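@channel sequence for tomorrow's demo:
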Amino acid sequence: MILGNGIDIVSVKRIENMLKKKPRVLNRILTAGEIEYCRSKKRVAEHAAGRIALKEAIYKALKDRGVTLLWNDMEIESDGSSPFLSKKCRAYSKLKEKKISFSLSISHEREFAVASALFWEEK
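structure tokens (generated this afternoon):
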């Protein structure tokens, strides 16, 4: 049974401006590992926007299901093709404890990043 489906879109320009004017704000949204990953990329803001969009999509999908997560409870990693929740983050532990499975997706280009998160009960 599907528990929740969330989607979000983020302006890359907004994140570029944030990085220029208030770079410390990202420390409240992204984990140290996520910031390191984004900074290793040519288009830092694009990758940061994708992770922010995915965290918001996760929040939207789970907010009415009794699973409350804070920004830094979630750590998004990538294997080169697909994003996933780090097994060491609080969100992953909470979802496994409640026997919830999920599928995550991020797509981005120069202007926007979009992400979706789908959650369902394990059988």
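heads up for whoever presents: Helices lie at 12-21, 26-29, 32-39, 44-62, 90-97.
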